[in-house]
Design a protein that fits this description.
5 helices; 13% strand; alpha/beta
């Protein structure tokens, strides 16, 4: 079976999407499913291209056992919409931007919103913690843990052999 390729996307690729990448990688590693997935993250903008994840986000993630080791890059519509099976946006604006980038292609069917995989989720999007305090980073991780668990369950029940 070919690996399921998933791309997590937020605005700048330094807080939410690298965290989603790390959380999901942690979940698939725990389940022994590393060989079934290729996971990456990207940003709508290239403002932080080449930078590591936000240091505050890294500190909060490390406390939960997640290593945010990816380097920021922008979404590349020419390759990402062709190469990835699922492209998962963190908030409503990310979704609009992704849909606009995919307009006129069949790739629009590959776009999903992260919180659609949450169970009992009080939020309809993963909020950007960049300008907030510690509670914002913790909320992001809470939402991502719920959503990544739901995403993995969805994939195990519907997509994987």
């Amino acid at each position: 079976m070919e690996k399921k390729k998933i791309l997590f996307v937020c605005l700048g690729n330094i807080c939410r999407s690298p965290s989603a990448e790390a959380v999901f990688k942690g979940y698939i590693e725990k389940e022994g499913l590393n060989d079934k997935f290729f996971i990456d993250s990207a940003g709508i903008t290239d403002y932080h291209a080449g930078a590591p994840a936000d240091a505050r986000m890294q500190r909060h993630a490390i406390k939960r056992g997640y290593n945010l080791d990816s380097i920021s890059r922008p979404v590349n519509p020419a390759t990402d919409f062709r190469e990835f099976d699922m492209i998962i946006g963190m908030d409503n604006q990310n979704m609009r931007d992704l849909e606009q980038l995919a307009a006129g292609t069949g790739a629009v069917t590959k776009i999903f919103k992260m919180t659609d995989f949450c169970s009992n989720c009080p939020h309809d999007e993963v909020p950007d913690p960049y300008y907030g305090g510690n509670d914002g980073f913790e909320l992001v991780l809470d939402l991502l843990e719920s959503a990544c668990g739901g995403l993995l369950n969805f994939l195990i029940n519907n997509e994987l052999d």
